[in-house]
Structures are given as structure tokens and as C-alpha cells.
TrEMBL record, chain A:
Official protein name in the record: Protein farnesyltransferase subunit beta
GO biological process, any: prenylation
Annotated organism of origin: Mycena indigotica
Similarity field: Belongs to the protein prenyltransferase subunit beta family.
Prenyltransferase alpha-alpha toroid domain boundaries: 46-453
InterPro entries: FTB, PGGT1B-like, Prenyltrans, Terpenoid_cyclase/PrenylTrfase
Keyword hit for Zinc: yes
Statement: the UniProt record of this protein carries the keyword Coiled coil: no
Catalytic reactions of this protein: L-cysteinyl-[protein] + (2E,6E)-farnesyl diphosphate = S-(2E,6E)-farnesyl-L-cysteinyl-[protein] + diphosphate
Quaternary state and interactors: Heterodimer of an alpha and a beta subunit.
TrEMBL record, chain B:
Keyword Repeat: yes
Top-level EC class as recorded in UniProt: transferase
EC number: 2.5.1.58, 2.5.1.59
UniProt GO molecular function: CAAX-protein geranylgeranyltransferase activity; protein farnesyltransferase activity
Domain of life: Eukaryota
Identification of the protein by name: Protein farnesyltransferase/geranylgeranyltransferase type-1 subunit alpha
SUPFAM superfamilies for the chain: Protein prenylyltransferase
Annotated family: Belongs to the protein prenyltransferase subunit alpha family.
Sorted UniProt keywords: Coiled coil, Magnesium, Prenyltransferase, Repeat, Transferase
CC annotations in GO: CAAX-protein geranylgeranyltransferase complex; protein farnesyltransferase complex
A Pfam match: PPTA
């Protein structure tokens, strides 16, 4: 593969002789990034060892007091760290796993759901983080964590947050936002507690968060009235509050994918999103060469390593909503243009360069951009973004068939539950579609495009809660 | 760091708290990735856990929650419990709001400060809303793109849906756009106000509004053509009003070619030309023109434009432009 991204002329983002605060901070960022540009003779390397040291240090020495603001996000600290290890292909020893399980279970609230720490109120965000962390370290049986999750109470907790417009508060007396809904849907899907009752109206809510730019916002407005009640609900679509944003867009799109089995079948009531606009917005978030191909989270904002996952990772969900470049690319175009096996819609190579050259802190851990510090959050989302840029997992009909053939009838609502199970687990990577910048040593694990867990961890926890045995893959898949 | 006030007396040494036994965080687990809390924080949150468990709602709980919030404004449980206490005590909401003015300013990047304001405003009603618009304006003057603040403003306007509140919005947006015409939050707010939240008095003639908006956005593009926010607004405006992209072909074409050597003598207000500092051709304009050609089913010309984006003007998105070509060809 030719080094096209490096050799292309490096134009600064145009200022049109009309500087404003946005263009000034943009120019400053470009200046910093210029000092980190990859050179043709020295391929960038993933500093796995310093990153592992950074992660181990977090676990053993603890988080410095500047992490005190994460006191209400303790399951997140655990999830970010554990999943970063997973992406780096490192498993945990049994003692560490047990400590993580014990800690997470103390964050479970007696009324259902998980809080940001022990004796904190249950909240959708730490609930996601705790359940996903348990997917990584937990196991069935006593002290294994999985069977100590109170699914009945979890469901009631979710229902207690439900709003008339199909959305959910993130916690009692708290805000509605698409991150919370993503978190709820992931947990409900993994734990086999997602029902039509739970998600009624939710797809309409998600669709109403898509803005005119194509990305999704944090929430939408259900009423023009100081008297919020179902009778005063605005007709659909409702106005989005806040502009299109990378984090909300990932959460909105992933939610949309998880809600597919629940969409009404009639076209009159079926909510819809504008897919072309969404794709356009996603690709526009990739910075140009002067920004090293990193992703930004909003129009006219700066690139930031965490959007490597929130935006870069969102491309991995497009196949699931019927956007597949290969299906339109091949036959008529002139042969020479299409020899490249990389059929992604974004520049996978440039994103890897951004993460490797700008995202890595020399002392270990990953970051927003130089000269910032590394932190647990950016470490995971840069690594997950790197994974999304290296691997392309897509829904596979053959994997789907293997799972369907192995399916055994357990419980009620078989058809729906089986569809959710198959939709969630049919992702696989076609051989020869990975693109690793800097050589095989830089390779990281693939991560599930919806859940940001490895496929192995997703299969294990879903197999457990759906009462299924996961069939071996018949072809070699990474 | 030098003029930091000494930490307050620990709750464990305050006689007025001697009836409360602090609750430890973890009972069984030896936590991984433990946070190295300050003594002050450890002390205060131990008492917070205890009062939450006992259900005490009192003035000293307001002091305690304020203390915890000042140390960690992201402590959502402290906020939640504080709100319940404010309601239970029938605490004067103006006093709470004054405190919030200080805290939102200090911690403007946390969700909770904004949400707490929202809860209070819902209790107070419309009379709090006008003042709130002024407060938000002041915050946005120091953090122009603060996501929470902008969406809080939009919520406030939509929730009360009061003509008096809406009345000043276009002027406010002008102020923000004039300060930085690349501020996407301000453009999004304009879209929300003009198109997505009902029709104001005096704006019933929608054709006039569309014309007004076209003039507004084109003028801003002419000042600084390479501004994705303005182009996205333009696309949104046409799309929302179901107007063909070709409505503005003559305008777009001014931006797809290199800058002419001399400015024209005649000013066409519908098609303001690029200023002398403009860096042309403008990628967003070339993309726009390609979309116009696709809309007109002139795929050959669209392909030429997409090719120039893929190979020269916007090579980072090569894959996408090639996808657009393949997509247009497959129809």
C-alpha cells in the first residue's frame, strides 16, 4: 500500500484572511501536530509496554487525586482500564479479576442498577461500565459476578427512568441524553432483558436527535409547554437540543442499530434517520492531513484522540444499517481504481497515524493530543479507535447461520430474543481486510462495533444470559 | 496553590455532626484502581453516605452537599440528594439560584450544574427564564461552544415557549456569530430558533424567512468561504424547506473556481462574491456543486468534481468521494 497520506502536500486549514478564535486555536493545533508528523523512513510503533505500565500503575498504585472527579465514575475507571488491556491482548490474573468483581458488585444499588461507587445512586452510565467490566472479568456461578447482577431490579430501574417520549433519564431527577440510552440498550441486550415494553418510542426519540448536519445531539425537546405530560407531547420529529456531536452520534447510531428488531413494521409509524447525511457528517469529522487525519467531535472543533472511537468506530456500524461501499463499488467502475481491498468510508491509515504519532504519550497511556497528559478515558478510546481503524468487523451471514443452527429454545419470546442474539453476535472479520500501519507488532484486538468489548467477551456473557452455547467459528477469524 | 485556604474542620471533629457515624465506601472489596482521595474529601463523602442512608434532609445536609459538590461537581448523587433536600425543606429557590450562579460559572463543563438549574427553573416558572437567558449569555461569552450551555438555552426557550423570550434570540445569535463566524454552536442555535421550534410572531411568511436566511448565510460564506458551519447551515436550510440545491447554483459557482484577479464593480446581493483573502477553490463549494450536478442527474460532471476532490482538493476523504461516484453510477 502506497504511503499516500504522508506524501500529500500539507496545506493548513484555510483561514481566508479572516481569523477568528476558532481558526486561531485550529492553527495552534496544526502547529503542534506538525512536530509529530510521521516520517516515511521511520514507521510509527505502538508503545505497548509503556501503555501496559500505565494501566498497571492505575490498578496497583491507584489514581492520583486529580481523578477525584471520577469518584462518581468508578466503574468507568475499571472498564476503561480493563478494556484497554483487552484491546492490547492482555488478560487478567484470577486475583485481579476477583478484586474487580467484588468492587463492581459493591457498586450495585439495592434497588437495581449500578452507581458510580458504593452507596451512590444508580445511574445508567456506570451501569453500562459495570456490566461491561463484568463481561471482561466475570464468570457464571458463585462469586463470578454475572449471577449476582439483579436483572429483575435492573429492569425495574430502567422502567422507572422511562419518559413519555421514549427516552430515559440517566438517573432520578437527572437529564435525558443519548449516552444514557446507549448504555441502557447495551446492558439490556447483553443481559437478555430488552423488551418491546422497555423500548417503546425509543427509536422515535433517537431519530429526533439527528440534526440538520447529519450527526446526533444529546437530546430532543418533547414539549413546548411548562406542563409536561403525554397529552402535550410534540408530534414527531421533535427539535434536537444541542448540535451534532461525536459521542452522541456514536451512541445514537449504536442505539438505532440495537433498536432495529423493535421498529414498527408499518411505514407510516416507522421512525427514520437520514443515512446519507449521517455518512457525510461522519466523514467530515476526519481532519485533513494538517490535522493528521484524527477525528473531531463537532464541526469547526479540534481533533481529539477519543473521537477515534466515537466517530471512527461509528463507521463499523454502517454495514448494520445497510451502508456498504463494496456493494456499490465493484462492477462498473474501471478496474484499476478498485484493487484496494480497503472498502472503508474513512481514511483508516491516517487515523492510525494520528493515534500512533499524536495520541501516544511518551511516558505511556494515550491522550487527546499533544502536549496533553494521558488519562484512562483517552487511553481506551484511542486504542479502541486504533482497533476500529485496523479491523473491519461486519455482519456475516455464515456466522449468523452457525449461531442460528446452534440455537436452543429457552424461555419466552423466542423469535425476538433469537434475532437480538444473532444480530449482536454475527459480526466477524473477513480474512485479509485488516490494515495495520507500522507492521504486525502494532496490531491490537478487534472490538465489537456496538459494545466495545472483544467478540470473545461478548459471546461469553451473551451465551450465558441467553442460555446458549456459542459454536466454534468454522473459518479462522481474529 | 500558595493562597489556598486551609481545609475546614473535619466533620469528625465538629460537635454538631457528632450524632452521625460516617459510612465507609467499600465494606468488602479491596478496590482496584483506587482513587487517592484527599482527607477532606474522604471525610465529607463518608458523612454524605451516612445521611443518604439515614434519609436526613436538613439545612446541614445542604451545607454538606455543597461542600462535596465544590470538591467534586460531577458527584451526581450529591446533586440528586441536594435537590431532594431543597424540595423537602421548601428551601428558598432564589437563595439556591444565587449559589448556582457561582457554581455554574466555576464548573461550567459538568452536566449537573446545568441540570440542577433546570430543576430549579422548572420549580420557579417563567419568571426565572428571562434572567436565565442573560446568565447563559454571560457564560457563553467566556466559553463560546459549551455544549451544555447551548442546549440549556434551547431547552429554556422551548420549554416556556414564550414570545418575550424568543424575541431577542436573533440579535443574540448575531452577536455570537459576529464574534466568531465559525462557531458551529451558534449556527445550530440559529437553525433551532428559525426552523425547528415553531413560528414566531412576524415570521409567518416563511418564504420571506427563507430568503432572509439565504442572504444571511451567503454573506457569511463570502466573508470566510472555507467555513463548514455556514455551508452546513445552507444545506440544512435548503433541505428543511424542500428546495433543490440548484436554487443557489450561481452563488456556489463563485466559490468553485480560483479567485478572480479583480473584484467586480456591481454587487449582486443574492450572490455575494468571495472577499480578496478567500482561499479558493473552496472544498465545500466543489462538494456542493457536485451534489447539484447529481441532483440534476448530470453524473458525468458530478464525477469530475468528486474526482477532483478525491485526487486533489480533499484527498483525506478519497474513499468517500469514490463511494459517491460509485453510488451515483449504480443508480
Amino acid at each position: 500500500m502506497a504511503a499516500t497520506t504522508i506524501t500529500t502536500t500539507m496545506h493548513p486549514v484555510p483561514v481566508d484572511a479572516f481569523p477568528t478564535l476558532t481558526s486561531t486555536t485550529q492553527a495552534e493545533t496544526e502547529k503542534v501536530l506538525r512536530e509529530h508528523m510521521p516520517t516515511a523512513d521511520k514507521p510509527p510503533t505502538l508503545q505497548k509496554n509503556p501503555h501496559l505500565q500505565f494501566l498497571i500503575r492505575n490498578f496497583t498504585q491507584g489514581m492520583p487525586s486529580r481523578y477525584m472527579s471520577y469518584d462518581a465514575s468508578q466503574p468507568w475507571l475499571l472498564f476503561w482500564t480493563l478494556q484497554a488491556f483487552s484491546v492490547l491482548q492482555i488478560g487478567m490474573d484470577p486475583d485481579t479479576k476477583q478484586r474487580a468483581i467484588d468492587m463492581l458488585l459493591e457498586c450495585q444499588h439495592p434497588d437495581g442498577g449500578f452507581g458510580g461507587g458504593p452507596k451512590q445512586a444508580p445511574h445508567l452510565l456506570p451501569t453500562y461500565a459495570a456490566v461491561c467490566a463484568l463481561a471482561i472479568v466475570g464468570r457464571p456461578g458463585q462469586n463470578g459476578g454475572w449471577d449476582s447482577i439483579d436483572r429483575k431490579k435492573m429492569y425495574n430501574f430502567f422502567m422507572s427512568l422511562k419518559q413519555p417520549d421514549g427516552s430515559f433519564l440517566v438517573s432520578q431527577h437527572s437529564e435525558v441524553d443519548t449516552r444514557g440510552i446507549y448504555c441502557l440498550l447495551v446492558v439490556a441486550t447483553l443481559l437478555d432483558i430488552i423488551t418491546p415494553e422497555l423500548v417503546e418510542g425509543t427509536a422515535h426519540f433517537i431519530a429526533s436527535c439527528q440534526t440538520y448536519e447529519g450527526g446526533f445531539s444529546s437530546t430532543s425537546q418533547p414539549y413546548y409547554s411548562a406542563d409536561p405530560s403525554p397529552a402535550n407531547l410534540l408530534p414527531f420529529p421533535r427539535p434536537a437540543l444541542g448540535e451534532a456531536h461525536g459521542g452522541y452520534t456514536f451512541c445514537g447510531l449504536a442505539s438505532w442499530v440495537m433498536l432495529q428488531p423493535f421498529l414498527p413494521s408499518t411505514s407510516t409509524t416507522k421512525p427514520s434517520i437520514d443515512k446519507n447525511k449521517l455518512v457525510r457528517w461522519l466523514v467530515q469529522m476526519q481532519g485533513v492531513q494538517a490535522e493528521m487525519g484524527g477525528f473531531k467531535g463537532r464541526t469547526n472543533k479540534l481533533v481529539d484522540g477519543c473521537y477515534s472511537w466515537w466517530v471512527g468506530g461509528a463507521f463499523g456500524l454502517l454495514d448494520s444499517i445497510g451502508i456498504n461501499p463494496t456493494s456499490v463499488a465493484t462492477p462498473e467502475a474501471d478496474g484499476a481504481d478498485w484493487v484496494d481491498v480497503d472498502d472503508s468510508l474513512f481514511n483508516r491509515k491516517a487515523l492510525q497515524e494520528y493515534i500512533l504519532c499524536a495520541g501516544q504519550h511518551p511516558a505511556g497511556g494515550l491522550r487527546d493530543k499533544p502536549p496533553k497528559h494521558a488519562d484512562a478515558y483517552h487511553t481506551l478510546y484511542c486504542l479502541s479507535g486504533l482497533s476500529a481503524a485496523q479491523h473491519k468487523l461486519s455482519p456475516s451471514s455464515s456466522r449468523r447461520k452457525q449461531l442460528a443452527d446452534a440455537w436452543v429454545q429457552v424461555g419466552d419470546n423466542m423469535e425476538l430474543r433469537q434475532r437480538i442474539f444473532l444480530d449482536s453476535l454475527c459480526y466477524s472479520e473477513e480474512e485479509g481486510t485488516d490494515t495495520v500501519v507500522g507492521g504486525a507488532a502494532n496490531r491490537v484486538n478487534a472490538t465489537h462495533p456496538i459494545f466495545n468489548l472483544t467478540v470473545t467477551h461478548t459471546e461469553a456473557i451473551m451465551g450465558h444470559f441467553y442460555g446458549q452455547t456459542i459454536p466454534q467459528k468454522t473459518t479462522r477469524l481474529s | 496553590m500558595t493562597d489556598k485556604p486551609p481545609p475546614p474542620t473535619p466533620y469528625s471533629e465538629r460537635p454538631e455532626w457528632s450524632d452521625v457515624t460516617p459510612l465507609a465506601q467499600y465494606e468488602k472489596a479491596n478496590p482496584l484502581a483506587p482513587i487517592l482521595y484527599t482527607e477532606e474529601y474522604k471525610d465529607a463523602t463518608g458523612y454524605l453516605r451516612a445521611v443518604v442512608q439515614s434519609g436526613e434532609k436538613s439545612e446541614r445536609v445542604l451545607q454538606l452537599t455543597e461542600h462535596v459538590i465544590r470538591l467534586n461537581p460531577a458527584h451526581y448523587s450529591a446533586w440528586q440528594y441536594r435537590y431532594e433536600t431543597v424540595v423537602a425543606l421548601d428551601w428558598p429557590l432564589d437563595v439556591e439560584m444565587t449559589l448556582m450562579d457561582e457554581l455554574a460559572d466555576k464548573f461550567l463543563k459538568t452536566y449537573q450544574v446545568w441540570h440542577h438549574r433546570r430543576l430549579l427553573i422548572m420549580c420557579i416558572g417563567l419568571s426565572a427564564a428571562g434572567r436565565e437567558l442573560g446568565y447563559i449569555k454571560q457564560i457563553l461569552a467566556q466559553d463560546e461552544k459549551n455544549y451544555h450551555t447551548w442546549s440549556h438555552r434551547q431547552w429554556l426557550l422551548a420549554f416556556f415557549n414564550d414570545e418575550g423570550l424568543w424575541a431577542g434570540e436573533l440579535d443574540f445569535i448575531d452577536t455570537m456569530v459576529n464574534r466568531d463566524l465559525r462557531n458551529n454552536s451558534a449556527w445550530h442555535h440559529r437553525f433551532f430558533v428559525v426552523f425547528q421550534s415553531g413560528v414566531r410572531e412576524g415570521e409567518e411568511d416563511r418564504e420571506r424567512i427563507v430568503r432572509r436566511e439565504l442572504v444571511y448565510v451567503k454573506q457569511h460564506i463570502s466573508l470566510a468561504p472555507n467555513n463548514a458551519s455556514a455551508w452546513n447551515y445552507l444545506r440544512g436550510l435548503l433541505d428543511f424547506n424542500k428546495l433543490p440545491l440548484a436554487t443557489i447554483t450561481p452563488f456556489v459557482k463563485l466559490y468553485t473556481a480560483p479567485l478572480p484577479a479583480a473584484a467586480k464593480d456591481i454587487v449582486d446581493v443574492d450572490n455575494p462574491p468571495p472577499g480578496q483573502g478567500a482561499e479558493l477553490p473552496c472544498v465545500a463549494a466543489v462538494e456542493f456543486l457536485a451534489d447539484i450536478r447529481e441532483e440534476e442527474r448530470n453524473v458525468d460532471e458530478a464525477e469530475t468534481l468528486w474526482r477532483s476532490l478525491a485526487d486533489e482538493l480533499d484527498t483525506i476523504r478519497k474513499k468517500y468521494w469514490e463511494y459517491r461516484i460509485a453510488q451515483a453510477r449504480s443508480v
